[in-house]
Design brief:
The protein folds into two domains: 5-90, Rna Polymerase Sigma Factor, Chain: A (Orthogonal Bundle), CATH 1.10.1740.10; 120-191, Winged helix-like DNA-binding domain superfamily/Winged helix DNA-binding domain (Arc Repressor Mutant, subunit A, Orthogonal Bundle), CATH 1.10.10.10. The chain has nine helices and no strands. It has helices at 5-13, 17-39, 42-59, 69-90, 120-139, 142-152, 158-165, 169-186, 188-191. Helix 7 (158-165) crosses helix 8. The longest helix is centred in the first third of the chain and has 23 residues, at 17-39. The N and C termini lie far apart (48 Å).
């Protein structure tokens, strides 16, 4: 029997560790990607994601049944990642010139040849596009990037994003529109046929 997040959270609040593990398994990837969108470093994102679940587990008794588990997780993740980011900004950089927001560039090429293997041109074009997209996303202000990634990558509606980020629906729409316009302008040469 597949249970909803609300049912699992209600069971977890009553001491069912297996229910909390199901919540963890169901949402760990989403929380990790969200932390990465803020921190830009995989290891730090993993640490922040783990801390997010620990904080929810430790404080689950403070929340009522019917709490939106995903909204709680992403709110805790945001606060945890932002706190970590603020701490990192106060500390001197270990490596000069290191860009903490740049995502890994070792993703698989998008375009494939007819036999399923990438051609050298496909690899070069895909890699170049990924680098430009990563750089364009990295240049977006945090408030725009978060909204864009939650909508486009995590597939949340604007109403859900408004609840997660605790901002108004029009603010979400405005931030998404601005992010999309900036990305489109940055990637214009790749969008033309």
């Amino acid at each position: 029997m597949i249970r909803t997040d609300d049912e699992l959270f209600s069971l977890a609040r009553r001491g069912d560790a297996a229910a909390f593990l199901q919540i963890y398994d169901r949402h760990k990837g989403k929380v990790l990607r969200y932390c990465f969108s803020i921190l830009g470093d995989r290891q730090q994102a993993e640490d922040a994601a783990q801390e997010t679940f620990l904080k929810l587990y430790a404080a689950q008794h403070r929340y009522r049944d019917g709490s939106q588990v995903v909204a709680l997780l992403l709110r805790i993740a945001r606060n945890t990642a932002l706190k970590d980011l603020a701490r990192r900004r106060r500390e001197p950089a270990v490596l000069a010139g290191m860009d903490p927001r740049r995502p890994a560039a070792d993703l698989d090429p998008v375009e494939r040849a007819a036999d399923g293997r990438p051609t050298p041109d496909d690899c070069a074009q895909s890699h170049e596009l990924q680098e430009h997209l990563a750089a364009a996303l990295g240049r977006l202000p945090d408030r725009l990037r978060r909204v864009y990634l939650l909508h486009e990558i995590e597939d949340y509606s604007f109403a859900e994003i408004a609840e997660i980020l605790q901002i108004s629906y029009p603010a979400v729409h405005k931030r998404f529109t601005r992010a999309a316009e900036r990305l489109r302008a940055s990637l214009e040469r790749y969008l033309d046929p």
